Amino acid sequence: MQPAILVGNRTGGQGKTLVSHILHYSYGLVGSDMKAVAADTPEEGTDQHSKLGRILPDVAELGIGAGLAKIRANPQSAVQYWDKIGAYLRRGDCIIDLGANVLPLVFDWANARNAGRLFEASEIYLVIPVTAQAQSVHDAKEILELAAKNQDKLPITRRYVIQNEYHGKFDALKTLPEYRALLEAVKANKATLITIERCQSEVWDQIEGKFMNFRDLANLDYKGFADKFKIDDFAASGAQHDFITWLNKNDEVFTAAGLVAKRMNHESLKIA
């Protein structure tokens, strides 16, 4: 059995769905069909699907639009609502993509249900995506500390902070007090720090904007990229190479950190 993986931060726009997507792809390589779960508010005009639900098939949608807002406003409804996530956490084999400000509610639920004793046989990973922005790193530190405070109610087996370089590299933050505080919290809470680089493929904006599935793209050669993105063979060759290289690197980093299970004869996806 694989772990239950909680992915979230206090603020939106940190790359939580990107991280969830990579995790789902990488676990697929080890033969684990992890259940994708979304507790998020969908973007406008999405026919009531979360962002993750527009990318992956058969996503369990637990928080949709006004329904989630109503739950937040009613404490008793919230406790009953989060029981659904509790069942996934207890069972494992899932990736749970949590919307902005949702993660603290999960800890509140665990306290209300005195849930710690129900997770004695469960393996739960906490994954906190963060971008190179002061508020983001501050929020990540607070989430780490919140998890530690509630360890007896929601026992986290492993903690990961994912530095998402979408908004820039983290080197520029070395002197920032908020970033130094995050690094101290990572050390104090025995978390693992991972960095994912920004994808440099020239078709990345289309991949992201059109909610394309990484697994489908990984099965295409450069000619497939040319057809899918309506570009010439030279552009397709470069775009496919850059995307697969980026995807392979993330898979290798996640696996080396223990976030994804190691597989026999771990080989990167060959660039066709």
Give a brief outline of the structure.
The chain is of the alpha/beta class and 272 residues long. The chain has 11 helices and 7 strands.
Question: What report would you give on this structure?
Answer:
- This protein is α/β, with parallel strands linked by helices and 272 residues long.
- The protein folds into two domains: 4-198, Rossmann fold (3-Layer(aba) Sandwich), CATH 3.40.50.300; 205-272, no CATH class.
- The protein contains eleven helices and seven strands.
- Helix 10 packs across helix 11 (233-256).
- It is globular.
- The chain starts with a strand and ends in a 16-residue tail after the last helix.
- The model has no long low-confidence stretch (mean pLDDT 91).
- This is ParA family protein.
- InterPro entries: P-loop_NTPase.
